[in-house]
Every structure is written in structure tokens, then in C-alpha cells.
Amino acid sequence: MFGHRKDGKRIKYEDVMVKMTPHFMPTRNDASNNIIHPVRVEDMDAWIVEKSEKEGIVFNYMHIVMATIVRLLATRQRLNRFVVRGAVYQRNYITISLTIKRSLRDEGPESTLKVNFTGEETIYEVKEKIDKAIADSIEADNGTQKIVEKLSFLPNWLLRWAVGLFRFLDRHNMLPQGLIDFSPFHTSCYVTYLKSIKCDAIIHHIYNFGTTGLFVAIGKEKYAPVVDFEELKVGKVMNLGINMDERFCDGFYFAKSLRIWNDMFHNLHELEKPFTITDPVILEHKQKMEHKQAKLDAKKAKKQAKLDKKQAKRQAKKNN
Asked: Does residue 125 or residue 9 have the better pLDDT?
């Protein structure tokens, strides 16, 4: 409440137009800008073959796109912001949500994933986290899926009331941390991998529920006319459908970020190196989480020591 959120820190000093824009456009659909951005994939293909032949590691386009998104969010901190009730917040973590089809059948169930990143990961670590999250989701329902399934059993009138309550709590910064952690809509970026269903990129809507300000649709690669040094030729292209909430940063920042992102696809060896986070909000949150984890570990160790002591006493009595 009162401007404090568990998932972000309010930006107090900002450009006048950035401050006013959320009041002119109160919802994300009002403020969504979108673009179909073609990416040449020849360099990506060469890098994928190199990793497969020399290191025996199999990458795909989804691994690469998500690794570049993580690095971009870590590099360009303003992209990792969101708007709630007219206020702009800097998100204190980096997450990517995605929906996968468990089987390629019309009736095949879908599963929603939310993968957490520090922003310091190499492309190898990003791949490992994604593959583990997908494998775990296929084997068993994750927390998000379980909550959705429980809610689906409610009658429609009660379900509307429950979702309305979630919206109210979220707008007033009272949504419990547990629900924020499970919600795929409270994320830095939402990704859909349309290549897996042999579909080109689309412009996907941005959800008004939650805090997602970026949506990326990865389309199937194809051959298309391209211009190389004033020469028209056929190139291999993958389209990215990008939808952006323009309220938390200006067009110049988005355009420069897009150029930086595009360069990453042609310099993938740079993603093999870890990145040093400089965003003070993420660093502060990381320190808090580490302190919290240390306290939990200490509490767990203390409890285990008591149990071991009791067990030793029982064993001593038994021996006597």
C-alpha cells in the first residue's frame, strides 16, 4: 500500500511526460506500441552448429531469443518497468513467462511457465533454466497450473468475484508475494514460441491484468528478400512480433534498445560470458533475498540441530 510494492520500487523523479502518460492512457491496451521485427538468422544457425559439433550442446531459437531478452533487460533497465494506478515502478527481478503446449494435438493441454533470472546468466545457464522448467512442467503441474485449476472449479459468479479481488489487491499493492511469484502476468516479459507450431510471428495483446509491459512472439523462420550492401538477395529471416507498453519509457529508448537487441543476435559469443548487474533496484532485492534465505537456512539448521540432539538423547537412553 501507499506506493510500496513487493515486486518493484516506485520511480519518484522522472521526465514530466513519462509521469503524465499513464494518466492519459490508464490501461496497457491504450498504450501498446507494436512492431514486426525481422531478424536474420544465418549467424544464429552457424553458432548453433558450432555449439552442437564442438561442445555437443543443442540450442534452438527459443533459447537464443530468451537469452538475449534476459541480457537486454539486464542492460537496459528501463525496459524492466511497469505501471500500476498511474505510478511507474522499477521491477526488482527479471522473469520471463511463456506458455507451452504439452502435446501437439488440438486437445493437448497448455502449461504456463515463469522462469526467474538474475540477469547475470550466460546463454548456457539460460538454456539450462528454460529446459528444466519445461521438463518439470511436462512431468507435473507447476504452482501456476495448480492455482488456475483450483479456481476453474468455482462457479462463474464466484470466479468473477475472486479475479476482481485479485485485481483490487494488485492495484492497491496488497497482492500477497506468493501470488505474485506464481502469476505469469507479473513478469518482465511474456514470450510465445510460435515456431513450435509452425506459425509466423503475430502481434500479441498485452494483458491488462498483472504488470507485463513487454510481449514477444517468436515466429517460424523463412526465406525472404533481403538487402546486403545494396544487393538484393534471398536471406533466412525470423520475425519477432513485439508489443510494448510505451508508458514507462520513451520511443528513443525503445528504438535504441531494439538496435542493441538486434546486434546481440549477431554476436552470440558475447552471451557466453556472464554479465555484471548494475541496476540498484535488482541488486537491493537480491541482497534482501540472500539475507532472507540465510535466515531461513540458519533457522532450518537450528531446527535440525535440535532434532539431532533429541535423537542422540534417545539413542543414549536406549543404549543404557
From this structure: 125
Same domain, 271 and 301: no
Residue 240 burial by CB count (10 A; 0-12/13-18/19+): exposed, middle or buried? Answer: buried
CA dist 43 and 172 (Å) reads 46
Helices (H) and strands (E) in the chain, counts: 9, 10
Predicted confidence at residue 179, as pLDDT, reads 85
Q: Which domain holds residue 227?
A: 8-277
Structural domain count of the chain: 2
Q: Number of C-alpha atoms within 13 angstroms, CB side, residue 5?
A: 30
Q: Decide if 3 is inside a domain.
A: no
C-alpha cell at 296: 531461513
Q: How many CB atoms are located within 10 Å of the residue 94 CB?
A: 26
Give the helix ranges, DSSP H, for the chain. 16-24, 42-55, 61-75, 123-139, 143-152, 156-171, 177-182, 251-264, 280-319
Cell numbers describing residue 190: 511474456
The reported pTM is 0.84
Phi and psi at residue 95, to the nearest 5°: -135, 155
Q: Tell me the CATH number at 98.
A: 3.30.559.10
pLDDT in tens, 214-247: 999 999 999 999 888 888 999 999 999 999 999 8
Measured distance CA(261)–CA(114) in Å, rounded: 22
- On whether residue 109 sits in a domain, the answer given is yes
Angle at 165 between CA 150 and CA 25, to 5 degrees: 120
CA distances to 4, 11, 94 from 142, in Å: 28, 33, 19
